[in-house]
Amino acid sequence: MNTMNIKELALKIKQNVSKVIVGKDEIIDLSLIALITSGHILLEDVPGMGKTILAKTLAKSLNCSFRRIQFTPDLLPSDLTGINYYNQKHCEFQFRPGPVFSNILLADEINRATPRTQSSLLECMEERQVTVDGETRVLGKAFMVIATQNPIETQGTFPLPEAQLDRFLFKISMGYPSNEEGVKILKRFIADNPLDDIKPVASADEIIDAQNSYSKVHVSDDILKYILEIIEKTRNHPDILLGASPRASLALLKACQVYAVLQDRSYILPDDIKYLAKPVLGHRLILKNSILGRNAGNTESVLDQIISGTAVPSEDNLSKGPR
Fold first, then answer.
1. DSSP line for 115-145
2. Domain closes at, from 155, 179, 211
3. Residue 244 shares a structural domain with residue 265
4. What tens digit of pLDDT does each residue of 61-97 get?
5. pLDDT at 228
């Protein structure tokens, strides 16, 4: 699959998702970038903003398996990964797969589960495998976690640890619709739910093919240096306690490659990095002077300072030469 095919595939899925989701083109694009890069998404917003509907619409647009699990304080790790049980009929232990053995997993209100249960996703999200009772089972290649959480309610919740947050490619917020978009939502849902009529427009094999092909997007040495300069400045900034990890730099690079494809280019521009730096890096940074080290507004402000203070490479040779 070449870059043009990837763009056509993404556009086809986006148009399908837009039949349900109103006025969130940027959010849909970020979701598609995460899907193609084999990344995961953390959707953080107040209730009723369409987080779950977005996840379900994206899943129904793909001809692949989808599982949803409601995270609660009494949820056990085995409820996610699966369990070995004794089959009396066959007189032997058998493995019952959990919801993670799917292509798209919706982890609804992920911060309501205990840290023990949250940590059961670490191996799944990073290594695409599950270890139960000492036996490791490989997940499918097209595996994506879409997690949701409510930033307002804190009672009965457990904040995600740094290791968990670092495994999400993006942390994004749906945001309130405009007045015009609100009218469109009311009209679209007034008679029935358009989600019921959504049909698959892409297969799991097509997604896997795209995941194996987007790395063809050219990345110049100047772009690599530009990414690393931004990453390095997050580690040395006086207002940041914990900077971005090497995983974060790889995540930013891969996201920019797919974003370039969506913009009908076969190479990365500095503007791609500027655009994706906040959703990729924002949730990975801990500030020194904020509650629990996290404040979305302050984090964006610090990243603005870092990006504006980093020299932008010339665009003359960004599309030429070997990587």
1. HHHHHTTHHHHHHSEEEETTEEEEPPSS-EE
2. 211
3. yes
4. 998 889 999 999 999 999 999 998 888 888 888 889 9
5. 96
Q: Is residue 227 part of a domain?
A: yes
- We report the CATH number of the domain holding residue 228 as 1.10.8.80
Q: Which residue among 211, 241, 266 closes a domain?
A: 211
Q: Which of 252, 311, 43 is nearest to 260 (CA)?
A: 252
Residue % of the chain over a pLDDT of 70: 95
Query: In terms of Cα–Cα distance, which of 182, 178, 181, 117 is closest to 147?
Result: 117
Residue 277 and residue 252 share a domain: yes
Helix residue spans in the chain (DSSP H): 3-17, 25-36, 51-60, 77-81, 115-119, 122-127, 162-165, 179-189, 204-211, 221-236, 246-262, 270-281, 296-308
Residue type for position 23:
G
Does any domain span residue 322? no
How much is the pTM? 0.90
In sequence order, the β-bridge partners of residue 94 are: 85
| Whether 205 and 254 share a structural domain | no
Classify residue 318: in a domain, yes or no: no
Q: Is residue 175 part of a domain?
A: yes
Asked if 169 and 184 sit in the same domain, the reply is yes
* Domain count across the chain: 2
Is the same domain home to 255 and 196?
no
Distances (CA, A) of 32 to 38, 130, 153: 10, 25, 28
Half-sphere exposure of 159 (CA within 13 A, CB side): 10
Residue 255's domain comprises 217-308
Q: Are 109 and 160 in contact (CB under 8 A)?
A: no
pLDDT surpassing 90 at residue 317: no
The long-range contacts involving 206-212, CB below 8 angstroms and separated by at least 24 positions, are 206/1, 206/9, 207/9, 207/35, 207/36, 207/62, 207/64, 207/142, 208/141, 208/142, 209/1, 210/1, 210/5, 210/6, 210/9, 210/10, 210/36, 211/36, 211/37, 211/38, 211/141, 211/142, 212/1
Q: Under a CB-based contact definition with an 8 Å cutoff, are residues 272 and 218 in contact?
A: no
318 CB-contact burial (10 Å; exposed 0-12 / middle 13-18 / buried 19+)? buried
